[in-house]
Amino acid sequence: MTTSIYDFSVNNIQGQAISMAEFKGKAILIVNTASECGFTPQYRELETLYQKHQSQGLVVLGFPCNQFGEQEKGDNQAISTFCQLNFGVTFPLFEKIEVNGANTAPLYAYLKHSAKGLLGSERIKWNFTKFLVNKQGKVTQRFAPTTKPMAIETEILKLL
């Protein structure tokens, strides 16, 4: 039985398997991202939060996804380059995944079940849905794509 996000392994954007247990003891903000979305500028605020609070134990994890309007068409290398060049992203990025449907990444199935959306829905509605995870690996909150990353800072600080 899955008890926390630490039970999962994911591939980083370079294709290497990473155990989520590597992030034990940190507050984690997990976001499904896309390079051609109206919310793409949120990368800037995500990076700001990461830089500002990394030393206190925050990590931001980006999971590119092409399921919403095909707004993440590039391969992993193109995504990584785009994020670094356009937004100076230094927080960890992972391989492109699916967050809904039959091929939902197991980590995302757990996140969606742990923090349901509007009216109890587990479905991810769009790019830049955010999940906040405490230092024990438990999902504490889910935020809509329209919620700007800096608006979550108060909630992040409670977990640090």
From TrEMBL:
Cited PROSITE patterns: GLUTATHIONE_PEROXID_1 (PS00460), GLUTATHIONE_PEROXID_2 (PS00763), GLUTATHIONE_PEROXID_3 (PS51355)
Keyword Transmembrane part of the UniProt annotation: no
Cited CDD domains: GSH_Peroxidase
Entry-linked Pfam families: GSHPx (PF00255)
Keyword Oxidoreductase tagged: yes
Keywords: Oxidoreductase, Peroxidase
Coiled-coil region(s): none
Annotated protein name in UniProt: Glutathione peroxidase
Lineage summary: Bacteria, Pseudomonadati, Pseudomonadota, Gammaproteobacteria, Alteromonadales
